[in-house]
Amino acid sequence: xxxxxxxxxxxxxxxxxxxxxxxxxxxxxxxxxxxxxxxxxxxxxxxxxxxxxxxxxxxxxxxxxxxxxxxxxxxxxxxxxxxxxxxxxxxxxxxxxxxxxxxxxxxxxxxxxxxxxxxxxxxxxxxxxxxxxxxxxxxxxxxxxxxxxxxxxxxxxxxxxxxxxxxxxxxxxxxxxxxxxxxxxxxxxxxxxxxxxxxxxxxxxxxxxxxxxxxxxxxxxxxxxxxxxxxxxxxxxxxxxxxxxxxxxxxxxxxxxxxxxxxxxx
Length: 266
Description:
Blueprint: H1 7-14, H2 23-31, E1 38-40, H3 45-49, H4 51-62, E2 70-72, H5 80-92, E3 98-100, H6 108-118, E4 126-128, H7 138-147, E5 156-158, H8 166-184, H9 220-223, H10 255-265
Helix pairs in contact: 2-4, 4-5, 5-6, 6-7
């Protein structure tokens, strides 16, 4: 059964946890690559008492650490100055995969410092920035959009930002998720596309050649004779002399003709 929650128990939950290793011992172990893959300092009393000093020292130790993969600094009183030190550590550390900074005192300035460190980081996949004591605005969003221009590893970002452009970050995270999926499937991950070179100035078009004059229409006389051309006159038939009705055919001679014939042969 769950025990009833009282104001006293809630205060005990909010208090730093004592009886743990001191911050100095933990940081020394990080520097020696011996704390293990998970380092959880949630509400560590020793760490919280000198939060900025310990955060800077831990960040320096993490720059050369090659063991810690999960770093939990939840409720460690970390401020923007501490976030700046962590950002510098992330720029060099290529081992941490999960970073939990919930319930600290980060403003947009501290978030931007983390984003700057993540620009050259290729290991952090999950970043939790929920429940900060300051409101995160447009400048924090701009910092992460700029970070994603070179970071193709971060696939999960948990935060609350007051901006209508939050969808742009979601789109970039989706891109990184797809890149990670391709890498798992054995497909080479695409590299960020380089800036497109400026297009060369177009060459001036050559002067248009003068249009050829249309061919002159052939003279009408070439295809058709002119209407005024006179045709050669047809040869005239010579009139034939009229035949003597009495010549040749004796059957049609008149009586006078027969009389002449008789007189000639008489």
